[in-house]
Design a protein that fits this description.
Belongs to the PpiC/parvulin rotamase family. This protein has helices at 2-26, 45-53, 57-60, 64-83, 90-114, 119-130, 149-160, 165-172, 194-201, 234-260; strands at residues 34-38, 41-44, 137-146, 183-188, 212-214, 217-228. By secondary structure, the chain is an alpha+beta fold. The protein folds into 4 domains: 1-28; 31-86; 95-133 and 234-284, no CATH class; 137-228, Chitinase A, domain 3. It has a 4-stranded antiparallel β-sheet. A two-stranded antiparallel sheet has the order 1-2. Strand 5 (212-214) and strand 6 form a beta hairpin. Helix 6 (119-130) packs across helix 10 (234-260). The chain is elongated and about 100 Å long.
Length: 284
């Protein structure tokens, strides 16, 4: 038993020492660390990291060893093929200029996206958005739909004489809401056809309209309830407001840079716009 205990302890010590040595070896690794080379051209860890970050999400979910080795193979093959190119086409240099410009600008944009937005700025943006906004009203109504004005007038008289509206709707309405007592649920302005909406707006809660004609037929409408719809809270809009604030800061920077920069733009008619499709200009 003593021998077994010493053996386990030795194994544990070896594992700890090996792990420590492995971690210590990684301490010197940087983005410039060379992981492969092809005819003297280095492939670095940084290049692998950048390439992995640009992979579609489904490939980033693969095990790291699969991705690592796959990317090394890809870059080695690209280097082998690229080395066979004797003359570099003009379009490569042009593409590199565009890519560098885009990436440099992207770094600046990322600083705005990653910058935290303070609660005071969020509150100010929220207050500004809703300062002059009146709360919307939504309505809950029921209706009885029939084909003719005569039927609608008769049903209106029945309801006025005390007939239960929901029961009458189940019995008389030809609309899809009839079996549920004519209940239309909650709706806001613009969700109903104009004539129907106009009638609803004239009613108090519990009041029943005169017959109303729409393209669907004749309606008897009862307003069940009206209420103001609450504005979204600051927490509901926090992410959206933060994006707006960041975009405004970025726009302000662009405007400031534009005002102080020496910019020359093409004059109207100076270029034939169809030239932008002329790929032959990219050939040597």
């Amino acid at each position: 038993m003593l021998f077994r205990t010493k053996l386990l302890a030795s194994a544990a010590l070896f594992t700890f020492s090996a792990s420590f040595a492995h971690a210590d070896a990684h301490a010197d690794i940087t983005a410039e660390t060379v992981v492969a080379s092809v005819n003297g051209s280095d492939i670095t860890l940084g290049q692998l990291i950048m390439l992995r970050s640009q992979l579609p999400e489904q490939y980033q979910q693969l095990p790291d060893d699969v991705v690592f080795n796959g990317l090394v193979d890809q870059l080695v093959n690209q280097q082998l093929l690229g080395d066979t190119l004797d003359v570099e086409p003009k379009r490569i240099a042009i593409a590199i200029v565009n890519e560098v410009r885009s990436m440099r600008a992207g770094e600046v944009v990322n600083t705005f996206i990653s910058a935290p937005v303070g609660d005071a700025d969020l509150q100010a943006a929220y207050d500004a958005r809703f300062a002059d906004v009146a709360p919307d009203t939504e309505y809950n109504a029921s209706h009885i739909l029939v084909t003719t004005e005569e039927e609608a007038t008769e049903i209106k008289a029945m309801v006025d004489d005390g007939a239960d509206f929901a029961e009458t709707a189940v019995e008389k309405s030809t609309g899809p809401s009839g079996p549920s007592g004519g209940d239309l649920g909650w709706f806001g302005l613009g969700m109903m056809v104009p004539a129907f909406e106009e009638a609803v707006l004239t009613l108090d809660a519990g009041e029943v309209s005169a017959p109303v004609e729409t393209q669907f037929g004749w309606h008897i409408i009862m307003l069940n309830e009206a209420r103001e719809t609450p504005s979204p809270t600051l927490d509901d809009l926090r992410e959206e407001l933060a994006i707006d604030i960041q975009q405004q800061a970025l726009d302000a920077l662009i405007n400031s840079l534009t005002e102080s920069a020496d910019i020359t733009l093409p004059e109207e008619g100076q270029f034939d716009y169809t030239m932008i499709q002329n790929l032959e200009l990219l050939e040597d």
